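Data availability (excerpt). The following record was deposited with the supplementary files.
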Amino acid sequence: MQAGDNKVVLIHYTLTSDSGEVLDSSDGREPLAYLHGFGNIIPGLENALAGKKAGDKLKVSIPPAEAYGLREDGLVQEVPRAAFGGAPDLEVGMQFQAQTPEGIRVVTIVGIEGDNITLDGNHPLAGETLHFAVEVTEVREPTDEELAHGHVHGEGGHHH
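Predicted structure:
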């Protein structure tokens, strides 16, 4: 069976940066399971996996436009500390959910200067080319419930 729309695909992967730094890996864990064609993984990787079957291995580089997008300078802004409701222990690297005109967005504190907090709404991997080494371990039919929910249930997938 081949990876394609409405198929459950299980993969082991290692994600590295341009410099070769390992950013994420399924090594030592269950394979990642996703429902192909539902946008559950970045578009470039999903496209590269189309047509693959169990046992296939590939290395693929995904440009920012097919991963987490380009960095947008407009998503970096300074806000007053008071916007955090008096939270005393703010630190660089902390993440929060913020309501934006486009919906909820995760923002990261990237700078603190006195009462001014600099937030970045870009995904941490925005602007990065992502390098994947992938092995497809299984391709199967989804359950009716997985199709209805738009994601995989159970090992390697979503748990309700």
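Summary of structural features: The helical segments are 43-49, 144-149.
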